[in-house]
Each structure stands twice: as C-alpha cells, then as structure tokens.
Description:
The chain is 54% helix and 20% strand. It has 155 residues and is an alpha+beta fold. Strands 1, 2, 3, 4, 5 and 6 form a 6-stranded antiparallel beta sheet that branches. α2 (105-112) packs across α4. The longest helix has 37 residues, at 4-40. The termini are far apart.
Amino acid sequence: MASKRTQALLYARRAAMAGIAVLLLVAGVRSSWGAAQHVMLAKGREHGTMTVAACGSGTCTGPYVPDGPTARHPRVTIDKSVAAKKGVRIPVVLKPGTTEAVRAGAPGILHAWAPLGGSLLLAALVVAGGLRMTRLAWGATLAGGALLGGAFLAL
Length: 155
C-alpha cells in the first residue's frame, strides 16, 4: 500500500506534466494567432495579389495589386517560406497599417497554424510519457502531423 507521501508525489508529477502540456499548447496557439488572425478574420482587410520579385534571407518582396479599390503598394514583404519562386503570383492579405503580407486562403491558414501543429507533437510526448494517456497522445500526434503535413503540401 502506497503511503500518503507517495500518493502526493504522484499527483504532483501528474499536475506538473499536465501543466507542461497545457503550456506547450498555449504557446503554440499564441505563436500561431499572430498570422492566423489576418487570414481567418480577413473581412475588412486589404486583399490582393503579390508577385514575387526578389527574396532575401528571410523574406520575399514584390509588387502588390489590390482586388478592390484600395491603394496599390509598390512593394510588400512576405515570409520566404510562403513564397515559392521569383515571378509567382500569390493571393495575400495585408496586415493593417503595414506592407507585410500574409498568404490568403487554405494554404495561408495551414501555414499560420503550423506552430500549433509542432506544439501538438511536443505535447503528445508529454501526455504519453508523463501522464500515461496514450490514446490522447496518439490523437494529438495525428492532429499535429496532419496540420504540419497539410501545410507542407499546401505550400
């Protein structure tokens, strides 16, 4: 029969592991939301098409042609991981008040939520190893893998 001290340590370990898993998921949502909000809540934002003209170490730049009666921007920037090759036209949404673009549509949504996919994979390890909840861990693994795989295929 386990002593009260052993029981308390087991509960503390489970609480710590659950806290780490929740922390990983919250960090994934928070890091994803910065770009996802512009793609998912795009009503009232500037929509258009960007043509990739040049790429640097982390970003690509190019001219922007709006879909509606908004201002043209001679040069906008987008993450290099989203842009394909020079000359490719990409549907984008501009972040308000900036010339920074975020890819629009389903590929943009999947790319924006990719950090959440990574945190789901990390949290699955904690859930499986620390909490011994293998079914939940497999579910998180499949969800994170599907999200990352979908983002990879969409871009």
